[in-house]
């Protein structure tokens, strides 16, 4: 079973093995990553966190868990520009620095093992966490509580005043959507560092996870263009055209398709 197959096998379990699936994403980029070894070593971190946790009901342990992680050195990676290591959970475990999503994935695995009912929230621009039933969200980078006004401020800092807070911004995210977000993050980080083949691995995974949008197909089409694969580029541009609802974008896609050589005919 190759890493991509192992990744999807994790998703097909009941419940899905979210953290292990994230490790198999790392294994796609680095053959030296052995998910089962990392999962076994994770026991030490679990013990360290468990020893520092207060005696409270499980549904009150979300913030203490994140604060304990912070005390152990886990924090948001502020390096500019961010490197792919900030999104790979294996590297974040080693460096203790990462994107909110990678830190959140580690927190979710700890919460699962400690029987804390924590879920992920695909908040725009900054992954968040929630303990089921709580009236607030939690920042995986330190454990700050976020109420609706805090979420509005966070959204404005990320995107400006034009994007308004919506109910779906606060919904719990399914494992498949969390891993799709992780794949998009890695795609962008690899592209920023001119590693187009690595970015293509992530772009393919985004599409294979289902419900890809026009931007996902466009991102992969651009990678295929850079790698001189016109037939694959055409395939993705045609899908982006079908999914796009922007008239200007549709016109540009049509023009771009017109400049590509005709698709191969299969007999």
From TrEMBL:
<dbReference type="InterPro" id="IPR032698">
    <property type="entry name" value="SirB1_N"/>
</dbReference>
<protein>
    <submittedName>
        <fullName>Regulator of sirC expression, contains transglutaminase-like and TPR domains</fullName>
    </submittedName>
</protein>
<dbReference type="Pfam" id="PF13369">
    <property type="entry name" value="Transglut_core2"/>
</dbReference>
<feature type="domain" description="Protein SirB1 N-terminal">
    <location>
        <begin position="63"/>
        <end position="183"/>
    </location>
</feature>
<comment type="similarity">
    <text>Belongs to the UPF0162 family.</text>
</comment>
């Amino acid at each position: 079973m190759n890493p991509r197959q192992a990744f999807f096998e994790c998703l097909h379990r009941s419940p899905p093995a979210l953290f292990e699936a994230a490790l198999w994403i790392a294994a796609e980029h680095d053959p030296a990553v052995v998910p089962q070894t990392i999962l076994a070593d994770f026991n030490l971190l679990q013990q360290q966190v468990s020893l520092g946790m207060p005696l409270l009901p499980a549904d009150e342990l979300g913030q203490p868990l994140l604060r304990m992680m912070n005390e152990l050195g886990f924090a948001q990676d502020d390096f500019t520009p961010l490197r792919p290591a900030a999104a790979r959970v294996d590297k974040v475990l080693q460096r203790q620095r990462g994107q909110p999503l990678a830190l959140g994935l580690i927190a979710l695995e700890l919460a699962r093992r400690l029987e804390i009912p924590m879920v992920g929230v695909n908040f725009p621009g900054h992954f968040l966490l929630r303990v089921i039933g709580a009236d607030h969200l939690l920042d995986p980078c330190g454990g700050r509580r976020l109420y609706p006004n805090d979420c509005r401020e966070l959204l404005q800092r990320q995107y400006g005043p034009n994007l308004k807070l919506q109910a779906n911004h606060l919904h719990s995210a399914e494992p498949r959507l969390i891993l799709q977000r992780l794949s998009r993050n890695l795609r962008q980080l690899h592209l920023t560092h001119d590693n187009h083949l690595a970015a293509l691995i992530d772009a393919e995974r985004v599409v294979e996870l289902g419900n890809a949008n026009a931007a996902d197909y466009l991102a992969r089409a651009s990678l295929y263009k850079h790698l001189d694969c016109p037939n694959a580029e055409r395939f993705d541009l045609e899908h982006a055209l079908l999914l796009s609802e922007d008239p200007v974008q549709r016109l540009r896609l049509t023009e771009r398709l017109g400049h590509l050589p005709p698709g191969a005919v299969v007999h």
